[in-house]
Specification:
By secondary structure, this protein is mostly helical. Helix content is 62%, strand content 5%. The protein has one domain. The strands form 3 sheets. A two-stranded parallel sheet has the order 1-4.
């Protein structure tokens, strides 16, 4: 490891240090009462919420990064092509997220009220569905433009996970996707919700930031194409599987063997990742080599 690569550990160190400090501070208190206003601006007819701002910023950042890659010649497409890609990514993300929500999480609810399937502003977007939608778009786009699939996914995975982290914090500001009742010192009392709850939105925020910090460090090495994307899949699947134990069942219904839907879908991510890395390690002893 050279000096440049060692410096790439700095963001991960900051993330872990802030997590430790947050834990120390919360241990001094007996719970936190949630009274955060999720709206940044409210002008009557115009409302800007933190959650919407995160999505907008995420796609804007992705567009800017793609433009930089195009200028460097890393991705051989035109700026107009990148605009088209972002548009299809937005469509794929929303469609995939909604379809998974309808099929895997609340089929009876949506089948009894089909019109609500279109009301995405009321909430109900599955991460695993969004990921599937994005992957399908990248596969189709890469084939049509004759671009290596992993050139796209390895480019998008780091900014993607960073803004997913902000999105989970936005869930916290919205007082949604909270955890089960708990007596831990850092439990949170949400309005009109029984008892203090595990702040799983904060758990997931730090989970995603830790993944981001790890990928940021690994990107300082010359990785084989796809390694960054599949490392994200593996880490996300493992962390999400564990965190689901503390998530309220109303957001993630139980299926078999006491596992929730989110855990089953996360296990699929882990299994696919292990298959990929297993095949890679059969052909080579290293997934990367240092500069």
């Amino acid at each position: 490891m050279n000096k440049k690569q060692a410096l790439r550990l700095f963001p991960l160190g900051i993330i872990l240090t802030s997590l430790a400090l947050l834990l120390i501070i919360t241990l001094q208190y007996k719970g936190f009462k949630h009274n955060i206003n999720p709206m940044i601006i409210n002008l009557g007819i115009l409302e800007i919420r933190f959650y919407g701002l995160v999505y907008f910023s995420g796609f804007l950042a992705m567009y800017i990064i793609l433009l930089r890659k195009i200028k460097k010649g890393t991705i051989p497409v035109t700026p107009e092509d990148s605009e088209m890609l972002i548009m299809f990514l937005i469509i794929g993300l929303i469609l995939g997220a909604r379809i998974f929500e309808v099929i895997f999480y609340n089929p009876s609810y949506f089948l009894s009220q089909p019109v609500r399937i279109l009301r995405i502003w009321e909430g109900g977007l599955s991460f695993h569905g969004a990921l599937t939608g994005v992957v399908i778009v990248c596969m189709i786009y890469s084939r049509r433009k004759k671009i290596p699939f992993y050139d796209l996914t390895d480019t998008m995975v780091m900014p993607g996970i960073f803004f997913i982290a902000l999105g989970r914090f936005a869930n916290f500001t919205n007082a949604e996707l909270y955890g089960v009742i708990t007596a831990v010192p850092w439990g949170v009392k949400f309005k009109e919700v029984e008892g203090f709850r595990h702040p799983v939105q904060i758990y997931e925020t730090y989970k995603n930031l830790i993944i981001f910090g790890t990928l940021f460090f690994m990107n300082s090495f010359k990785l084989q194409k796809g390694t960054l994307s599949w490392l994200f899949m593996l880490m996300y699947g493992i962390f999400r599987f564990v965190i689901e134990f503390w998530k309220d069942p109303s957001y993630s219904p139980f299926l078999i063997l006491g596992l929730k839907m989110g855990q089953v879908l996360s296990l699929v991510m882990v299994i696919l990742s292990l298959i990929y890395f297993g095949k890679k390690l059969k052909n080579t002893t290293n997934l990367y080599y240092s500069d």
